[in-house]
From TrEMBL:
InterPro entries: Diacylglyc_glucosyltr_N (IPR009695), Glyco_trans_28_C (IPR007235), Glycosyltransf_28_UgtP (IPR050519). It is found in: Membrane. The lineage of its organism: Bacteria, Bacillati, Bacillota, Negativicutes, Acidaminococcales. This is Processive 1,2-diacylglycerol beta-glucosyltransferase. Residues 24-191 form the Diacylglycerol glucosyltransferase N-terminal domain. Transmembrane segments: none annotated. The keyword Ion transport does not apply.
Length: 398
């Protein structure tokens, strides 16, 4: 193993991710944040899309988003096909071998003592690099979903960090009976420090509600679409304009999707006004914001897409999660796991969403607060990133 033998020598760590969705990058950022808390450490963030011309990466991301929006059945087919042995793994190795030739010089320039991956593609690249050029390199994989895709399980991985110990079996069955088995840690998906600050739920909730003008007993619904604002918010907001929801306050966070933000801002006029101030709409629209932890703890329901990191952030805040129309593939896998293990609800259409909100509105304030506090204590993984950093520091002397 290549790690420095003593703490007086700098430990250099490479975190390699892919910009397919914001979750992989957010997990990498959370990991970097924790690792930089160690003494004498240098962290380098890498993006596999930097291995080839930017025009190719942009074209791929556009194609990916178009497939999800226009023909999700095609993505579902490719996900199922790739999530098994045989030809799928041969294709994986072919792609990763090509990308390794493009990215080998970057890895050699960084000269890391340890590497982390937060996505299947960099995992495969680093696995091949380790096998061919650096057998002593320590390789850790942070799984950012509540399911484990087959392409994530590669030879030479030293440790997998997963959302829950119940996922160990998925890695074990994929890894088979190899001579060296990876270490498995079910510490949770790393989330950024702002989601793990030790503050009383009641304090955070009260301060946020005061800032946004929501009374303590008001029913607040947060729409969270991930960094790209991919939740079908227009459809949901249009439904919440209905008179039967006139007592629900809605806050929509569109992330970096400025087009969606402008469309929702135009819809504010169609909402009834707040009783306390008839100049302010019940609908609040925000773009990218650092206040997501406060909003999640202030809300009575968080309607969200089923990205792994987004769900982990919700769990950390004790949010009452409602997954809306999960996409095929890992989002459906996340939804099944969250429903079975953490009691999260899921709906597939507006009618089901309306029915769910009408039921939730009837729950008393004291019951809502009690449930939220329980979820925050039971399901949050506050220490995930810190525990991974501590483990990395212990490897230093090996």
């Amino acid at each position: 193993m290549n790690l420095p033998p003593a703490k007086n020598k700098k430990l250099k760590i490479l975190i390699l991710s892919a910009p397919i969705g914001s979750g992989h990058r957010m997990a990498a950022a959370a990991l970097e944040e924790a690792l930089l808390g160690l003494e004498n450490v240098e962290v380098v963030q890498g993006n596999v899309f930097d291995f080839f011309p930017s025009v190719i990466g942009k074209a791929f991301l556009k194609f990916y988003e178009t497939v999800l929006a226009v023909c999700p059945w095609l993505y579902a087919f490719s996900y199922r096909w790739s999530n098994r042995d045989g030809g799928s793994l041969r294709m994986r190795n072919l792609i990763n071998g090509f990308l390794l030739r493009l990215g080998k010089s970057f890895i050699e320039e960084v000269k890391p003592d340890a590497v982390f991956s937060t996505h299947a593609t960099p995992t495969g690249i680093l696995s091949l690099y380790k096998q061919k050029f650096d057998p002593g390199l320590w390789l850790g994989v942070v799984v950012t979903d509540f399911t484990v895709h087959r392409w994530l399980v590669c030879p030479g991985v030293d440790a997998y960090f997963v959302a829950d110990e119940k996922l160990f079996g998925q890695i074990g069955s994929a890894a088979g009976r190899s001579e060296t088995q990876p270490a498995l840690y079910g510490w949770g998906i790393p989330v950024r420090g702002r989601f793990t600050e030790k503050q009383e739920l009641a304090t955070v909730r009260g301060e946020a509600r005061s800032r946004f003008g929501w009374s303590e007993d008001a029913f607040v619904c947060l729409l969270a679409g991930g960094g790209g604002g991919m939740l079908p918010m227009e459809e949901i907001v249009r439904s919440l304009q209905n008179e039967k929801f006139k007592d629900i306050y809605v806050v929509a966070v569109t992330g970096h999707n400025d087009g969606l933000r402008k469309k929702l801002e135009a819809m504010q006029k169609g909402f009834s006004k707040r009783e306390a101030d008839d100049s302010i709409s019940r609908l609040t629209v925000l773009g990218f914001t650092d206040e997501m932890p406060q909003l999640m703890q202030a809300a009575d329901v968080v309607i969200t897409k089923a990205g792994g990191v987004s769900l982990a952030e919700c769990l950390e805040c004790g949010a009452n999660i409602l997954i809306y129309h999960p996409l095929p593939g890992q989002e459906q896998g996340n939804t099944v796991f969250l429903h079975q293990e953490y009691g999260a609800a899921a709906v597939t259409d507006i009618r089901q969403l309306d029915d769910y909100l009408e039921r939730e509105k009837k729950v008393s304030l004291s019951e809502r607060l009690q449930r939220q506090k329980m979820r925050k204590q039971r399901y949050g993984h506050r220490a995930a990133a810190g525990r991974i950093a501590e483990l990395t520091d212990k490897l230093r002397g090996r």
